Amino acid sequence: MLENKANPTINKSTGLPRKRFYRARAHSNPLSDSHFPIPLSPSHVDHSLRYPQLFPSSDQFDSSKKIQFVDIGCGFGGLKISLSTLFPETPMIGMELMDKVTVKERILGSRVANPGPYQNISVVRTNSMKYIPNYSEKGQLSKMFFLFPDPHFKEKNHRRRVISCHLLDEYAYVLQVGGIIYTITDVEELGEWMKSCLENHPMFEALSEKELDADHVVKLFWVPQPKDKR
Amino acid sequence: MEEYRVEECEHDDNNNKTEEDTQMVESEQNNKDVEVAPALISVHPTQNSVAVAVGSDLRVFNFLEDCAVTLVDESGGASHNDSIRAIKYGANGKLFVSAGDDKLVKVWSTESWRCISTVCSEKKVSAVAVGNDGFHVCFADKFGVVWVVNLPGVDGAEVPLNKKAVPFLAHYCSIITSLEFSPDGRFIISADRDFKIRVTIFPKKSLDGAHEIQSFCLGHMEFVSCLAFICTSDCSQGILVSGGGDSTVRMWDIISGSLLDTCEVGAKAGQLNSDSIEGNCSTVTDICTIPDCTLVAVAIQSLRGIMLLCCDIPSQTLSVAKVKTATLITIKTVINSNKGWFSLHVLETCFITFA
User: Fold this and answer.
1) Measured in whole angstroms, how far is the alpha carbon of residue B176 from the centre of its chain?
2) pLDDT digits (tens, 9 = 90+) for A30-52
3) Under an 8 A CB cutoff, do B216 and A173 touch?
4) Cβ contact A40–B221 (<8 Å)
5) Who has the most CB within 10 Å: A53, B26, B192, B283?
6) Is B260 left (phi over 0), alpha (psi -120 to 50) or beta?
7) pLDDT tens track for B144-174
8) Looking at the complex, does the CB of residue A37 fall below 8 Å from at least one CB of chain B?
């Protein structure tokens, strides 16, 4: 495969970043206060910068169009690309702690390759476990995604799990009443843990089978996400 | 019995050293070379007594009988083995709590000055609060978890209880610097070093945890160091004021979390200080209010004295009312007040009255 001389990290045929050139460490320490900027409060989040088509100017802030979906630990953003076509008018954001995973480039690449869609997705590098209230107001979100979170097997590290009884308080705060948390894992113990945290938390209840079947988003989880084009 | 329990608490530190522990221990060791725990002072709501903590030493002075109080603790020796980090009287005046680096939270009856309960914390304690009804004691540890202990039907004559604390809410991996109950007891406010203030609804069944967050008060640009409530007859819900490392005092509406006003006290202190000590060190170290009064006293690191702010409730603004300087050598000042007088604790206790 010929590589573009100017930028060998971009796949010539699709214009999307090639994962092999973005070797990421599997874990990033969520405790270290890396120097990424954090908005002072949800009203300080600049929507026009992230979603230029949906919010043409930062002055005219259309309050009905706030970020509604958040993907925690979005990695390469595969889920959001799929969600974007299902919900084209809904602004959504992915949060990722690792900085080598340059999701932004993939999104920009997608926007260039397919003009029109993908205007409603963006990504921010941040520690969502500490700073979600800085990005979202109370009851602003309608969906939150936690796909394949880090299992943190050792018991002493269980506090670092992204779904925990204490953090669920904050997720309940940013989610609107009736908002939905989606989570999936391939580690059985983690699955049991998350299920138990959610069931024991007074502000969350499980969706019924019928509701699950009717939800289109759930079907997305079973489609292999295009992580890269090697 | 007492020794066994203390050992149990210390034991987990050595065996379960996680990366977080290492980070915390390292930073504390660095700090230990430079700082000692600040002296603390707390005044009884009806001015009966005052409690002072210096290092691991806790002393209480009884104003009514004009004498020092002997603290009765079943352990016999010193009540705390390491620096005391937080002390507080309950709003109804019946309880007093002390806690700190020895991972013990001690609840005292203010009538008999007996330690009626000793609670073991897994980690060092950074802040305490006592519920207005006198039945709940909350304390925060250095990992950002706030614990609650129930003290039902406590009365000084009972045998000391050693209750277990239950985790209640948490600020993810943040040191909580201040814990306060709202004057009406509906909410518990927790402030941390990551610039956040969280307002949580205090539940009826506290042992199930406090899961419903009312609001976040976001706006400080540095760590939040202290919290206090202004409470007057026409505003019984109370207005929250907070001070921080960004040299500001801010006023908040806790129901919505919105910032009502900001007072740049560091800048104002800088204008008055012709001989500034450490350059730009204007952290707000403590704030304090008087019941039924709209004055707020602010202690600022670089200011030798106290700044008084006046809160105007109708316009919801804060402004500087007066600055009282004092010729004292201070690094950290802690203030507490009641019924119109303030005490300034430096190296020796010194009382300044404001008419």
Assistant:
1) 10
2) 555 556 778 888 888 877 777 77
3) yes
4) yes
5) B192
6) alpha
7) 999 999 886 655 445 555 678 889 899 998 9
8) no
Does residue A121 carry a pLDDT above 70?
Answer: yes
Yes or no: say if A9 and A102 are a contact pair by the CB < 8 Å rule: no
Burial group, residue A197, by CB count within 10 angstroms (0-12, 13-18, 19+): middle
Q: Which residue of B has its CA nearest to A201?
A: B211
Instruction: Give the amino acid at B59.
Output: R
Neighbouring CB atoms inside 10 A of B65's CB total 10
Q: Give B130's pLDDT tier (boundaries 50, 70, 90).
A: very high
Please state, in angstroms and rounded to a whole number, the distance separating the CA atoms of residues B355 and B208: 46
Nearest by CB to residue A134, choosing from B18, B218, B221, is: B218
Alpha carbons B81 and A130: distance in angstroms, whole number: 33
Cα separation of B304 and B301, whole Å?
A: 8
ipTM above 0.90, yes or no: no
DSSP B59-109: EEEETTTTEEEPPB-TT-S-S-SS-EEEEEE-TTSSEEEEEETTSEEEEEE
The CA distance from B24 to B142, in Å, is: 9
Name every chain A residue with its beta carbon within 8 A of the beta carbon of B191: none
- The region that residue B336 occupies, defined by phi over 0 for left and psi between -120 and 50 for alpha, beta otherwise, is beta
Closest CA to B104 of B147, B50, B133: B147
User: Average pLDDT, stretch A86-105?
Assistant: 75
Task: Kindly indicate the confidence band of residue A64, based on its pLDDT and cuts at 50, 70 and 90.
Answer: low
Nearest C-alpha neighbor of B108 from the set B64, B68, B51, B66: B51
Q: Closest Cα partner for A229 from A20, A6, A5, A7?
A: A20
Helix residue ranges, H only, B176-282: 265-272
User: Whose structure tokens read 């309960």?
Assistant: B117
The answer, for A129 touching chain B at a CB cutoff of 8 Å, is: yes
Helix (H, G, I), strand (E, B) or coil at A160: helix
Closest CA to B135 of B117, B114, B123: B117
Question: Which sign, positive or negative, has the C-alpha torsion A192, B204, A180, A67?
Answer: negative
A41–B219 C-beta distance less than 8 A: yes
3-state secondary structure A25-43: CCCCCCCCCCCCCCCCCHH
> CB of A149 within 8 Å of any CB in chain B?
no
Interface test with A, best of B23, B148, B172, B187 (most A CBs within 10 A): B172
Distance (Å) from the alpha carbon of A28 to chain B's nearest alpha carbon: 13
